[in-house]
Design a protein that fits this description.
single chain, 754 residues, mainly beta, 22-stranded antiparallel beta barrel, six-stranded mixed β-sheet, 44 strands, 3% helix, globular
């Protein structure tokens, strides 16, 4: 009885997340001849050590197995003339097994694991793209905002030329319409939107999962275009100590540290630290303004994990603290005037989240858990003569129960959630004080009669203390007629409360006069005057095809998504160059996105990744009508070449990567009423961005990398309108369609103690 009471208390106060995972093992078995040529081995036996289930390779050497809990993690590869060998595998892994000709009949087998650094799951009904830490090693990736430089799905850009705020774009829309989470817990949202991408160091990231379309109802109702989930390094990581250092041509420097310790058989902990420094004022284009803010960022993280195999209880507690200090604006050494236009930006954030769950030992398909979180964020800014102060307190709880109905063909997750958000914004341009209280319930059912078909349907019902009842349905379908072909379709609804000041903080660095909502709306009807919840449906379909050509594997993925808004907080920059209006959508707004991507090993250990993306984002503006969304390119083209000199040894190991990104024309908001010298064309020119990096791996512990961003040194010109008179009526630093900073060379190192 006491145990039952204890478990119920744990359930109500703590948390665990439920994540759908790729449970397949795929790979290829090859023989390396004495002349270096590779030949596939057909009809090799591949089976799990702990179960009788097995398969054989086809004529191209390819094999596919679905992994079950009773299989364990040991896979045996056996072929006549070679000594059988046992390797350790994990769900979702792609392995390359290499037999050398000289090893035949001699008992020697060389097994090389070569998994794609970015993979699309073949078993998940949602289109999930997993970016591994090896993919992040292809570029500097100092923080989360720089972790998508070698990825075609997510685009990152600056919002203005002064404050250093960044935003992502996904499916043709701002990242605020995607759910950005950290280990399946709410991450970058609310006041964190302008700078939250900078708060997660790249050296801490274990992997990133990017899913397109509406997400799972277990994660809430806010996701409209997809989810980006970041997994941090764990206490079970193979690195006992890890140090990563970075130094750029602009004197930007960073240091990251990670360490872990097994405190007891059931408790383990990890500590992570990050410090970045930008000490100097750079003005490479000579407009009198810093190209990016100077300042420092300090982030600390401590994580505790608990695991008890006998009791079936697992838990986690994570505490993260951020201190961000920035200074931007006019450079002090180029102006003689006393009234310099400066921007001081201070951010402080504390995030605590925990997970705890119980897996029933007698019924291994039944689990019971919860997750909870607390966030306190402060963001203060003085931009020119405009002051801004924002405070946010968030409490979050999610209770889940997972089980089956009869057998594993019918699975379900059901639970309850609660979110408390307290916002306070004070700004010369407008602000508000409001509190959100949102209790909710959800259920998600998965039907998987065989390995070919999976259907996931979910609904949730929430009650918002301001906006009333919210009904959120979502559906995901997966059909795999063959092992290497997957069709997917999805549909779902998403909603979110707009925070127009925090989300557009960079526009304070302009002379625009803000008007948020209807000034004549009754006081207290909705936050920010009369702004309603943003509301949208997302529909999508995709096909993923894996293929083998010349004994080397590749994958092609094609998808189309449409986001249709029922309501949107429109940010109108076209009404006048001296105004910024935020109001409810009156008309249509939608975003259509088509993307085709291919990955292939063109030569031995030389991987090619190419992608083309077409975007059509439109919204209705008052007195203007339906127009293309500003700063959203119609066309994007992406190409990445990466090379690894060896996959079996570390001595003399080289890695190299070269990436090209083509950005098509973008619509620029109206400036026609400005004086001629302060007018911009109606659209930007297309341009290419190139970046590359080479890494020398000396041994398993130490490697050095060097690279260059913006190799072609392309820069937007002009960056700021009327930069000579920042207190005048035409000053505007927000018309950003291209890179602000020019070519940047950097070096860095990674040192790990296993």
């Amino acid at each position: 009885m006491k145990i039952s009471i204890w478990l119920m208390t744990v359930f109500l106060l703590s948390g665990m997340t439920v994540i759908a995972q790729d449970i397949s093992i795929r790979g290829v078995v090859m023989e390396e001849k004495l002349d270096g040529n590779l030949e596939p081995i057909a009809y090799a036996n591949v089976y799990f050590e702990k179960s009788s289930r097995k398969t054989t390779t086809d004529t191209s050497g390819y094999f596919f197995l679905v992994m079950a809990p009773e299989d364990g993690f040991k896979l045996i590869v056996q072929f006549l003339g070679f000594e059988p060998d046992t390797i350790t595998v994990y769900p979702g892994q792609y392995v390359s097994v290499l037999f050398k000709e000289e090893a035949s009949l001699l008992g020697e087998v060389v097994v090389a694991h070569r998994k794609r650094t970015t993979e699309v799951s073949f078993l998940d009904p949602r289109q999930v793209e997993k970016i591994s830490s090896q993919e992040l090693f292809k570029a500097a990736c100092c923080n989360l905002s720089e972790s998508f430089e070698t990825n075609a799905t997510v685009d990152v850009s600056f919002t203005d030329a002064v404050t250093g705020a960044k935003e992502i774009q996904m499916l043709g829309l701002s990242g605020k319409y995607s759910l950005l989470s950290q280990e399946q817990m709410p991450g970058v949202r609310g006041l964190a939107i302008p700078y939250g991408l900078l708060y997660t160091p790249g050296a801490w990231i274990e992997s990133i999962q990017v899913s397109k379309g509406s997400g799972s109802v277990t994660q809430g109702y806010e996701s409209m275009t997809g989810q980006i989930n970041v997994e941090l390094k764990k206490p079970k990581d193979e690195d006992v100590w890890l140090f990563n250092g970075f130094f750029g041509e602009s004197l930007r420097s960073e240091l990251n540290a990670f360490t872990r310790k097994q405190v007891s058989p059931m408790f383990s902990t990890a500590f992570m630290g990050h410090y970045s420094l930008y000490p100097t004022e750079h003005d490479r284009n000579g407009d009198g303004f810093m190209d990016m803010p100077s300042g420092s960022l300090l982030t600390l993280d401590n994580r505790w994990d608990y695991h008890n195999n006998k009791s079936g209880v697992e838990g986690q507690l994570n505490v993260q603290w951020v201190r961000d200090r920035k200074e931007a604006g006019q450079v002090s050494h180029s102006e003689t005037q006393h009234d310099l236009y400066r921007a001081n930006l201070d951010g402080d954030r504390i995030q605590v989240y925990g997970k705890l769950g119980y897996i029933f030992p007698e019924k291994r398909y039944n689990s019971f858990g919860s997750q909870w979180g607390y966030v306190s964020q402060k963001q203060n800014a003085l931009i020119g003569h405009t002051s801004y102060e924002g405070k946010e307190t968030t409490l979050y709880a999610n209770l889940l129960y997972q089980s089956i109905i009869g057998d594993t063909r019918h699975k379900y997750i059901a639970g309850l959630s609660f979110r408390y958000d307290d916002f306070l914004e004070s700004c010369d341009c407008g602000g508000d004080l409001f509190t959100e209280l949102v209790p909710g319930a959800f259920a998600e059912y998965t039907y998987a009669p065989n390995t070919k078909l999976t259907a996931v349907g979910g609904v949730r019902l929430d009650y918002h203390n301001i906006y009333g009842w919210l009904f959120t349905p979502r559906l995901h379908l997966r059909y795999a007629p063959w092992d290497n072909t997957v069709f997917r379709a999805s549909a779902g609804r998403g909603r979110r409360v707009s925070n127009p000041v925090a989300e557009n903080l960079g526009w304070l660095a302009s002379a625009r006069e803000w008007t948020i909502g209807n000034p004549n709306a009754p006081e207290g009807s909705y936050p920010y005057g009369d702004l309603k919840m943003e509301d949208a449906w997302n529909f999508g379909a995709s096909i993923t095809q894996e293929f083998t050509l010349d004994y080397r594997s590749g994958v092609v993925s094609v998808d189309f998504y449409r986001t249709q808004f029922l309501n949107r907080a429109v940010v109108d920059l076209d009404h006048s160059p001296q105004q910024l209006l935020v109001y409810n959508l009156d008309g249509q707004s939608y975003a259509n996105t088509f993307q085709a991507e291919a990955q292939y090993e063109v030569l031995k250990r030389l991987d090619l990744k190419v992608a083309y993306k077409w975007q059509d984002a439109q919204m209705t503006l008052k007195d203007i009508g339906l127009v293309r969304q500003a700063f959203t390119p119609r066309d994007r083209f992406f190409i990445n070449l990466s090379y690894v000199s060896s996959v079996a040894t570390y001595k003399g190991h080289w890695r190299a990567s070269l990436t090209g990104q083509y950005t098509g024309i973008q619509r620029i908001p109206y400036t026609g009423s400005n004086p001629a010298e302060f007018q911009l064309p109606s659209q930007s020119p297309p341009y290419w961005m190139m970046l590359g990096q080479i890494t020398r791996v000396f041994n398993k512990a130490f490697e050095v990398y060097a690279g260059c961003e913006n190799i072609l040194n392309f820069k937007q010109d002009p960056v700021i309108i009327d930069a000579e008179d920042p207190h005048g009526p035409y000053f505007d630093s927000g018309m950003i369609w291209g890179p602000i900073f020019g070519r940047e060379v950097y070096i860095g190192f990674r040192y790990a103690i296993k």
